[in-house]
Amino acid sequence: MKFGFKSATVSLPRLAQVVAATWVAIASTVSAAHPNLVITAEDVEAMRQAVKQPGLFQQTYQQVKASLDEQMLLPITVPVPKDAGGGYTHERHKKNQYLMYNAGVMYQLTQQQKYADYVRDMLIEYAKLYPTLPIHPQKKSSNVGKLFWQGLNEAVWLVYTIQAYDAALPGISKADRDSIEQGVLRQVALFLSEQSPHTFNLVHNHGTWATAAVGMTGYVLNEPEWVEKALYDLDKSGKGGFLRQMQELFSPQGYYSEGPYYQRYALMPFVTFAKAIETNEPERKIFEYRDGLLLKAIDTTIQLSYNKLFFPLNDAIKSKGIDTIELVNGVAIKYGLTADPQLLSIAQLQNQILLTGDGLKVAQGIEQGLAQPYDFQTKVYGDSASGDKGALVILRQQAASAEQAVVFKATGQGMGHGHFDKLNWQFYDHGSEIVSDYGAARFLNVEAKFGGRYLPENDSYAKQTVAHNTLVVDETSHYNGNWRESEKHYPELLFFADNDQVAVTSAKVDSAYQDVWFKRTMAQLKLADDRTIVVDIVDANGERQHQYDLPVNYQGQLIETNFKLAGNTTSLTPVGKANGYQHLWLKALAEPQAGMNKITWLNEENNRFYSYSTLTTAETQVLFTQTGANDPDFNLRNQHSFILRVPTAKLHTFVSVLEPHGEYNPSKEYTLNGSSQLTVLAFDRQREIDVVELAFVDGGRYLLAISNGKQVTSTSQSTFSHQGQSYTFQGRFSLLQLD
């Protein structure tokens, strides 16, 4: 909007009147237009009423206001950047973005000028500093920043800061707005876009944050061209940009290619920018794009968790869970759009109410008792934009009033943050991780630990295949540890089927090694008396002789084995020299007799026992290991594992069963069923049918039959025999309880 004067010969009093009238016109126009991103003017009216009424929203308002008021008594600090992640200047600029955001919201809710002034004063300081900044001295990669060591953090800063400015803008004079916009907001937006095309056009979470930041800034500063570039890339060709990221980074089921840890992180710019698009240009119908993809992605992010923590696939920090602010925003925005009552139960677990219009709806829904239990499902999540390049399979079972989950990772690489562990699995029970994934070797934002970056051991151990629960051939990682090569390939999901008692899935990969393909079939069974087990069948097929290792990383204290261990009690040596093996101490070695052999451990979080029973040959060795070798800086967490090793074979089939059982109660000093209850484990392959026999001490006997045929339907019939008796079943599997 332009304002001008018809005559230059205006008396000073009259000029003052004209200027005052003009400023009133500007202020009223600005006030009507802002905020216009995640929070709208309509939201503000409802929120102002809500803070006057007792309840969750008022409690959050009072807490945020009290904390902010305390911080506003301190001097504004905008230091010259010098530190990497976790360092003082890094954390100070992060804190400033949150302070400004909260102050902007508080200005809208209270209409008190001091909050707008706080945002103004801090941004004026940034406007003085930013034009003087070179590239950050601790630059991390090609995605460089100025305020921060990487442009990613710069984009995050702008996502928060532009919302703060949007909210405070009606209380900031035009002269100060000009200084702020020219000195910092426009400069940061241009730095993230025109000056960083390699990141801005990148189909990656760094690109998502950058496009979201620039696009949201475009809406606030009335730069529609910035919005178009954010949506379609710098030349508006559609080869990059926000919409291409939505197209390529998610599968049709809403699975993000880098895994759940990065899915929750990338979710923030996706849903925040989408909300801004919906506010400003509802005709784009952004939440309907790709059959409602973003709403599916929010749900998928929740589904990929257990006991509030995300499944730690790839470069994941294991303590991250559904209470992260990214998913709090996602849940609130989706609830605001759908009013799905199941989301309220997740919001209750998150225990955070946002001071937004959607946050108000969440608070009101909870207070009205509308929350319903969230339905965590057994489900297949296809990988890649097409959803047909591998999959993440989640098997869930309710047993003994506690949920169990099997995570079967048959996905693609997941770009540079991916780990080399095709057909890996994890197991969760009674709230705890039992068969575990290492996740990332990183102490996020702990400057003393390699500046808070991924540690060298992330590459040398955490990413390597031996750190995971899948087949390792000749002590080398899948794709020889080359992620760009791995990115070209993916497993083939052969089948998935389930009913109330059984969930079974199978996948194979023939590209991880030059002359070896392998297949893994997993089944989660719910037997009589609420007993549950996991059946695991791994087929290795090589053109020549190889060493086959099958590691199992477990959480707990080793209790017993039914075979003798040769423990290394006076000195330790590493298991190997490279590919992660150099970081494993060999604690004990065993050469059990052929047959069913057992390893039992106690998980000390849930006080349950777990027995791993496996069929071994006379050549099988069992290596008991612990991380810590070649780790002079103590960067690796203490992780126990055992490795089933077949030293020389072309073909080999590992058949194993994981059996939860018993209870250990140290306070009341009793133990129940501390030993495995499985008495028989037998395996037979009859053409395309795998038959597993199971028997338990209480007399329970079962047959699990799985058809491996390619064209099996729900009505397909298969026949097998066992101990002279013939059995016929329909579909992919059958679980029979024998007399």
TrEMBL record:
Keyword Lyase: yes
Secretion signal, residue range per the UniProt entry: 1-32
Subcellular location, record wording: Periplasm
GO CC terms of this entry: periplasmic space
Domain Heparinase II/III-like C-terminal residues, every copy: 383-647
Entries under Pfam families matching the protein: Alginate_lyase, Hepar_II_III_C
Keyword Transport: no
Keywords attached to this entry: Lyase, Periplasm, Signal
InterPro entries reported for this sequence: Alginate_lyase_dom (IPR008397), Chondroitin_lyas (IPR008929), Hepar_II_III_C (IPR012480)
Family annotation (PANTHER family): HEPARIN-SULFATE LYASE
Protein name: Alginate lyase
Organism field: Neiella marina
